Amino acid sequence: MATHAVIDVGTNSVKMHVAAVRDGRTEVLGDFTEVTRLGEGLHETGELSDEGIARTADTVSSFHAKALELGAETVVAVGTMALRSASNTKAFTDVVRERCELEVEVVPGEEEARLSYLAVLSGLGTAEGRVVVFDTGGGSTEFIFGEGEGIRERFSLNVGSRQPTEEFCKSDPVTESELGAMLDSLDGEFDRLKEGVDSLVGMGGTVTSLGAVQHQMKVYDPDVIQGSVLTLGEVERQMEMYRSRTIDGRRETVGLMPKRADVILAGAAIVMTVMRKLGANELTISDRGLRHGLFYDRYARGRKTTPQ
What we know:
13 helices, Nucleotidyltransferase, domain 5, globular, disordered C terminus, alpha/beta, six-stranded mixed beta sheet
């Protein structure tokens, strides 16, 4: 048996997947998420804030210690959009290295997209026809266009929930005119999406949060979320609900992590925009993400393992 851990350092949150590969099966030992807002203010300053660096480094160090407690022989940490774009990324990676002797690998956008597609295939299997998988985070949204196990195209757009929140959502609650301006901007940002699809799969904290709210989950259950369906009508309903509530009011929403209350409106707007652009009336939710795809790619792929 070999146990490994993958830590995903995102713009809005840090996530960790720990699992053991044993007797042809992948046994999950733990999956953890902590909202740290590493990318807070990045759009305006181009830099990671000292506070964001400290919060996120604390969490990475804590996760690293937890992974070792669970018996991980190797711990890999990867960073995404915030670390790709910040001018002071080295300040963060140096702190992490000093705290726990862990090197944070900054993953290119297209590689992030590829790993996200692998996460879907390892969790949901393949779908018939044209499939689009999208993973929207705090700082970017990755797209993978595929058919079966083959990838036709993949790309990353530098827009996630954090930047439009800071740019457009000035009032509390957000006004209809502010929402309209944000939607107009997102329509242009996602103009590259023009073709129809047979199957749409959504992943990332925004999509799973929308699913948790739909199911009114007081305690998040990944088994319920994985493979569940989210309709365009439900996304539109939640988006208007978040727009009409203050941030404090959103924190009371059953199923929503309180720390996501400030960015969930922009996240829902991104999901709605993607669905409308692709002509999809519904999407399938994948609870798996970059960390699962990287684990599969490095430690389980080609070993005839089955996720458990």
